[in-house]
Amino acid sequence: MPPLRPLSGSQDPSSALRLPANRRLSSPTSQRLNTITETGLPPPEERWSRFTGLRTSLSTNATGRTPPPAYDWVPGPNDEEFPKDPATEEKLSRLRKTWSSRTEKRGGWRRVAIIFAIALVVLGLVIGLGVGLTRKGQKGGDNEGAVVGNSTTTQPADDTSLIQQLPLGQYSFVTNLRTQQTTCTPNAATWRCYPYSVLNPSDPSTSASSQTTFDWIIRNTSSSYATNTTGTTAPEGVAANLTISSTNNPFALSFEPHPLTYYSSASNASSARLTFSFDLPKTVFPTSAITPDNSAAQCFFNNTVLAGTIYLSARGNDSTSTENTDKDGFWPYAVEVAQTSSSGEGTPDCYETVNGGVGDRITEGLEPVGEGRECVCGYGNF
């Protein structure tokens, strides 16, 4: 670098700190500086815009070309908008009238609804006619005769009084304890019959204390089953195609469905009845002491049979049967039920009761009695 020269006397001494020393520049360099000073900064580049649609262009000095004039994009009318000139309105009016007339000629939705309703009516008539003819044929076949056992009965077609629900359904069979027999056991305290009071015809007060109700259900196992309108049978009876079972009551006799047999003697039409008989062990809790130390006990009669006769037309002849004849859910006819246990080895089979469970077996004073003896709990309403 050349050494600095002292300032002339005409210059301000303070400007020496700000201004650089004069310096000669070569011609090419000075020309370049003059160009920068005259033209200034280059114009910014123009780019695409969706509003102006201009392309990027260079300055005139850089490209030597003149850019195209700017223009604006004007959006066209929406597709849904139509010109509002009179000619167009007239065309649209003619189209509307033409479409309206065609719709009215076809009937539109009203015509479709009417056709659908007519189709439904026709379909209903066809189904109703078919069902009616089917039922008529079945009714005619049923009236030809019902064969039960060795006999045939003819039922009038128009006698609706013969069409009854009996014996299907759930019924309360109201009875009285009429018999209590204890000859099958050496100790009468081991056989007891609920409600522990026997009916005494000469004592009206026992009518209520001896009353017992059995809630049972009668169901059919076939479309053809015995009813109170079924004809007579042979002496040995026929299968009724019915079952009887207990309701869900933990405080009553409980048993699964068992078959019923139908009997109807030709000599006595009022004796039409259903019967059942099956093994149902009986448990008794003696209230009197049956052991030397007076301990609690329970006795099992494993040979007990539950049997019953349910009449389909004969009425009971006591006050209990008469009072419940016209009540819904009560069996309106006579009924007879019995629990029977025969004597023999193991009758009764008694044990001590310990904490609610079965303890030691009790044998003292419970030796078996002779064969052919029975213990009975007999119930009935006639």
From TrEMBL:
TM helices/strands, residue ranges: 112-133
UniProt entry keywords in alphabetical sequence: Membrane, Transmembrane, Transmembrane helix
Keyword presence, Cytoplasm: no
Compositional bias of kind Polar residues: 24-38, 54-64, 149-158
Region (Disordered): 1-86, 134-158
Keyword Membrane attributed: yes
Signal peptide: none
Highest taxon, organism lineage: Eukaryota
Official protein name in the record: Tat pathway signal sequence
Organism listed in the record: Cladosporium halotolerans
